[in-house]
From TrEMBL:
This is EAL domain-containing protein. PROSITE patterns: EAL. Residues 3-253 form the EAL domain. Gene3D superfamilies: EAL domain. Pfam families: EAL. SUPFAM superfamilies: EAL domain-like. InterPro entries: Cyclic-di-GMP_PDE-like (IPR050706), EAL_dom (IPR001633), EAL_sf (IPR035919).
Length: 258
């Protein structure tokens, strides 16, 4: 059976109108002390901030921008050596830029095939902060991606438009706790109770949890005590521009054993 043909928006990479590059930040696994995945973060071609790139995205070029982010993430991760280890690649995408999950994935699949990049090592991540104009369409994207063997992550959980209603509608493979829940966690009983409750709920739903934005050892220790396994933040590494930043795994293992 032939694959669906990509539509004009998928093919028209020139419609972006500006160049982009990627930085990569590790998501660490406290059980192994090694990166579980690397998140691809958009940058300008000379390392300019994500904000300076995203301000150029318009309704007219959003579709092509989403496609190019996928391509650049896979190409950049392969060049940086991600395939030399077992870590996965997490790619941010815009649900409102996906017209058809089957058609709009074709460029991603072709890019991965050209680089011998296993598609089961891809995670597609979208943020709860983006307003869901059509939750049914988003549910279809999530179900389609999971059926294709991709991981799906919901970012900024707890800070967006839908919250628990979104999680009730569909279950991603991963949720990423909003960093505002993490900030000062060690000194905030309400935050610890909320995260503990989210962990129990996600365990019952079969959803993994990543805590992002960790900047202090005290925050990390509090998360470890609650039972969070996957963590991301400046405490371990800042994003590496077009590279996988070095991470000292001893730090993570020491935190686990403390």
């Amino acid at each position: 059976m032939s694959r669906p043909s990509p539509c004009a928006g998928c093919r028209d990479g020139e419609a972006v109108g500006f160049d982009i590059a990627m930085a990569f930040q590790p998501i660490m696994d406290l059980q192994t002390g090694q990166p579980f995945a690397y998140e691809a973060l958009v940058r300008g071609p000379a390392g300019e901030s994500a904000a300076s790139v995203l301000e150029k995205v318009t309704p007219e070029n959003r579709y092509a921008f989403d496609q190019q982010c996928r391509v650049k993430a896979i190409q950049g991760a392969a060049r940086a050596g991600l395939l030399d280890g077992p870590a996965r690649l997490s790619i941010n995408f815009l649900p409102n830029a996906v017209y058809s999950p089957q058609a709009c994935i074709q460029l991603t699949l072709a890019t991965a095939a050209a680089l011998d990049f296993p598609t089961d090592r891809l995670i597609f991540e979208f943020t709860e902060n983006e307003e869901m104009t059509d939750p049914t369409h988003v549910s279809n994207i999530v179900a389609s991606y999971q059926k294709m063997g991709f991981g799906v992550a919901l970012d900024d959980f707890g800070a967006g438009h839908a919250g628990l209603n979104l999680l009730a509608r569909f279950q991603p493979d991963i949720i990423k706790l909003d960093m505002e829940l993490i900030r000062g966690l060690d000194a905030s009983l309400p935050r610890r109770i909320i995260i503990d409750g989210v962990m129990k709920m996600c365990a019952a739903l079969g959803v993994e949890v990543i805590a992002e934005g960790i900047e202090t050892r005290a925050e990390l220790d509090a998360l470890r005590e609650i039972g969070v396994r996957y963590i991301q933040g400046y405490l371990f590494a800042r994003p590496g521009f077009q590279s996988l930043p070095a991470v000292d795994p001893i730090d993570v293992r020491a935190a686990r054993a403390a």
